[in-house]
Specification:
about 210 residues; 7-stranded antiparallel β-sheet; about 35% strand; Jelly Rolls; alpha+beta; 5-stranded antiparallel β-sheet; disordered C terminus; 3 helices; globular
Length: about 210
Amino acid sequence: MTTPLDEITKSLGRISTGGMFETRATRSPKDLHLQVEGVGRVTLPVSPATARKLCGVARPARHGYKEETRLDRKVRDTWEIPAKRLDLDERRWANTIIPQLERIRRDLGLPQKCRLRAELHNLLIYGPGQFFAPHRDSEKTDDMVGTLVVVLPSRFTGGELVIEHHGERKTVRASARHLTLTAFSMQTVFTRFARSAPGTASRSPTT
């Protein structure tokens, strides 16, 4: 069944803004100071020992379905730590994220007067074989225009973020030493696959 929101999203998707549907960059992790309740300061790159500690305080991740929030490991199989258990040094992080939000605005073709802000949603940890099936991100707030995924550096094997839009596909592979920042618009469908010892901080850029 097609909802009014689906129709609006399709219409927006047909509008040519001159921008991209996905944009990414790598940056130094020096400004990212993150503390997790029950674990303490997360040093970067994320070590296998730290990844195990994070999994120990995490819960199985839920996913949105229409107006519901569901737990279904056939759809989403990963670990999640909600934002209320995370303490991010916002003042230091602003040195990295503010210039990136302006770049994201330009790359996605958003109006020049538009000002994005990034709101921390959760911390995800993907272990071997874990995944998130193809889906479109649900709106976390009324003014949400897209998703920004910040992948923390770690040593890992396999794993990728696949982003699809109107038949075009982009594949993102993260760095062992740097932050990987990937942003995409709301009408985009994407899939996350397994990594062996990473952390993924998920944020939502909003106007």
